[in-house]
Write a structure and sequence with these properties.
Blueprint (H helix, E strand, L loop, with lengths): L4 E6 L4 E7 L1 E6 L2 E6 L5 E5 L2 E7 L2 E7 L2 E5 L3 E6 L2 E3 L5 H16 L8 H17 L3
Parallel strand pairs: 1-9
Antiparallel strand pairs: 1-2, 3-4, 3-6, 5-8, 6-7, 7-10, 8-9
Helix pairs in contact: 1-2
Amino acid sequence: MSDELILEIVTPEKMAFTGEVEEVTIPGSEGEFGVLRGHEAILTSVDIGELSFTREGKKSYYAVNTGYAEVTADKVTLLIETAERSDTIDIDRAQRAKERAEANLAQIAKEDLEFDKINLALIRALNRISVAGK
């Protein structure tokens, strides 16, 4: 049995990351959870948040959107809408998205059909700002 844990981060556009890692921390829809080699197999949903993993003693961070995580004893596969590595996030663009979402939310009622969509855009922008530069 190998001691490696393989991580794959897959979006509709690309394979955002694939490689051997020591551990992974995933923003699950029921809360953040960590995965080490030998983890019990699970299939769970992923929420908007910060994904991190350690590889060769170095921590890496991604801002991720919703999707699914399949965990086995030696592999973690994330199928998610978007994944941006912290050092590639355009902080100015994220800040503009945040400001735009806040302005739009201030102009509509919570009952408006667009409210949830705009609120999710705000959450995604705040997540990207939080993860940027880590």
